[in-house]
Specification:
There is one protein chain. The chain is an alpha/beta fold. It folds into 2 domains: about 240 residues, Alpha-Beta Barrel (TIM Barrel), CATH 3.20.20; about 70 residues, Arc Repressor Mutant, subunit A (Orthogonal Bundle), CATH 1.10.10. Helix content is about 35%, strand content about 20%. It is built from 11 helices and 12 strands. The strands form 3 sheets. It has an 8-stranded mixed sheet with strand order 1-2-5-6-7-8-9-10. It has a two-stranded parallel ribbon with strand order 3-4. The chain has a two-stranded antiparallel ribbon with strand order 11-12. Helix 9 crosses helix 11.
């Protein structure tokens, strides 16, 4: 049976070999980000809910980890905002108790760090990685199209509150959208907020796959490097620059399953899959052809090439 809550392992540009846990239904989120590779949000909410029982999630995770595979991270992520799930705290607690040898990461947009309950539930995680793109409400709304109740000032204060108590690794993602959060004024605001939040690492990220909105463009390497210098602090890196591929990965994961898991997480071109799986271009193309003929994936030509993605009807 295909897992409903576990995906991967996939090679993440930021986390290495990562086994994903998805705690919310597809595209349930507090944002509707213009750059989202999963498409537009279909259920925009800030209300935490009991989407899936924690034990259902853990049953799938125990199966996936039965052989104690090599992983760089178990990651709460997926196609929506994981902190919306009331199972967040129980799943984190059980994972840390039963599988302490694996680092546990949480990818979050940070919007619910305003909630003391969410902050408490995240404390046992090894890494928490929220997103901050701007300190300006107008830019925040343009990029993220957030739930109407959300303000960026309150979210930043929530990040500061969390940092004051959190003893794990706090990594802050800054997603760069040229022309919106790249002006001198925007960067000055980010520089100030980052200083107050004081993350252990800042990762500059930008568009790498088809976005929800066609107007979003990727920042160039030169632009990202300029922003890195402008933010003026140590511990800033450009996402993906240090990614290395372990040649043994293919031996640890069935080739078709690794491609399928990667596409479940994000649309990719052949070159992306070669880089993240360590397979040859010919082998990747053969697997993609078989998956497309079986109706499991679809393809779409974009400026950077032909992107393959999981057929949403199969989710």
């Amino acid at each position: 049976m295909t897992p409903k809550h576990i995906f991967g392992p996939v090679l993440s540009r930021r986390l290495g070999l990562s086994l994903g846990i998805d705690l919310v239904p597809f595209k349930t989120c507090s944002y509707d980000c213009a750059y989202c590779e999963c498409g537009h949000t279909t259920s925009k909410t800030v209300t935490r809910q009991d989407f899936f029982p924690a034990e259902d999630v853990m049953a799938e995770l125990r199966t996936a980890l039965a052989t104690r595979p090599h992983l760089d991270s178990i990651t709460l992520a997926g196609s929506g905002e994981p902190t919306l799930a009331r199972s967040l705290g129980p799943v984190i607690a059980i994972v840390k108790r039963e599988f302490p040898e694996y680092p546990l990461s949480v990818l979050t947009n940070g919007s619910l760090l305003t909630d003391p309950g969410v902050r408490n539930e995240l404390l046992p995680a090894d890494r928490v990685i929220p997103t901050l793109t701007t300190t300006c409400q107008k830019t925040f709304e343009r990029i993220h199209n957030p739930h109407p109740s959300l303000t960026i000032d309150t979210i930043i204060r929530g990040m500061e509150e969390f940092r004051s108590r959190y003893r794990g690794a706090l990594w802050l993602e800054v997603f760069v959208v040229p022309g919106l959060n790249t002006t001198d004024e925007e960067l000055a605001g980010l520089r100030s907020a980052i200083g107050r939040i004081d993350p252990d690492l800042v990762q500059l990220n930008t568009l790498d796959r088809p976005p929800a909105e066609g107007w979003v463009e990727a920042a160039s390497e030169a632009e990202l490097e300029q922003i890195r210098r402008s933010l003026g602090r140590p511990g800033i890196e450009i996402a993906g620059q240090r990614l290395t591929v372990n040649p043994a990965l293919q031996a640890k994961t069935r080739s078709a399953d690794l491609v399928r898991a990667t596409l479940h997480r994000r649309p990719s071109i052949v070159e992306d899959l070669v880089r993240t799986t360590g397979m040859s271009g010919a082998e990747v193309a053969k697997i993609l052809g078989a998956l497309e003929r079986a109706g499991e994936i679809t393809s779409r030509r974009m400026e950077r090439g032909v992107f393959y993605s999981i057929n949403q009807g199969d989710l």
